[in-house]
């Protein structure tokens, strides 16, 4: 059974707010910030290693789960979030069978840690051995705390299956925004709060909402989310969690792709296409290409860009947020 189906990795919001780091004195805001920085570390190193997005998402889940069992406060025998980010990435390359040489991973994480992609790192440097020893040490700790439960049910794979079930998998704009929602969700604790299926349904809802599109009801006139087994409360909550995260803006980003993402049951209902036929987006985009038979698990990380925080400091290579990414694509078409 996939780990996402196990209740040991699903928590209430109160339980997330009682994580070991918070018990050890971190404020919920600071703990959330460090989690986001750790996942961002994974994304930057992964882009440097040209790893598929699924592998990076798996690493992010390992990272988030680890800190439900262990503190990130060094003064309280905790482990720094960058050390665990590097270890989670190393472990994910194995479990997702996208292996890279240990040396390549060590060099990548060392460069990200130093915020210098041009940094010269080799196996003769102290920095190299410090990161290598850290990764190998904490890999065993991570496996034990995860109870060797490393087979995940990915929302990316579920997303594409759901789009096929709704017969809208060929609608490129909607598919891209939904995929971007999943990318952004990895920065949050969403994977700790609901199963992968509900996260994927939330991504479809956000995409339809963002594009002001509708999704056809099923042949019996039932809402599209019922066909997928979705629950309105969970769907709205998934988008709300991301909207709250970007409102808090722990990474100090200058853009907020979820600034107008306030959601409600009525808002969800407006994504229903009650008339027969394809969605409005499908009709306006007849030439939208399909995935060409490629499953989401093979999709690569999109082209990264340089992003700066509010202080003007470069944070490294990261993906554009959903809104900006979609506008760029529309402009190029």
What does this structure look like?
The structure is a single chain. The chain has 333 residues and is mainly α. The protein has 2 domains: 9-145, Cyclin-like (Cyclin A, domain 1); 155-318. It contains 16 helices and 4 strands. The strands form 2 sheets. Strands 1-2 form a two-stranded parallel sheet. It has a two-stranded antiparallel sheet with strand order 3-4. The radius of gyration is 20 Å and the shape is globular. Residues 282-308 and 313-333 have low confidence and may be disordered.
Summarize the structure.
It contains 16 helices and four strands. It is mainly alpha-helical.
Please tag this protein with its features:
single chain; 333 residues; mainly alpha; Cyclin A, domain 1; 2 domains; two-stranded parallel sheet; two-stranded antiparallel ribbon; 16 helices; 4 strands; 53% helix; disordered C terminus; cyclin; cyclin-dependent protein serine/threonine kinase regulator activity; Cyclin-like_sf; Cyclin-like_dom
Domain count: the total is 2
> Which value, in Å, is the CA radius of gyration?
20 Å
The secondary-structure element order is HHHHHHHHHHHEHHHEHEEH
Helix/strand/pairing category? mainly alpha
N-end to C-end Cα span: 43 Å
- Which strand order does the major sheet show? 1-2
**Major beta sheet summary:** 2 strands, parallel
Which stretches are poorly predicted, pLDDT < 50 over at least 5 residues? 282-308, 313-333
Overall geometric form: globular
Overall average residue pLDDT: 81
Number of helices: 16
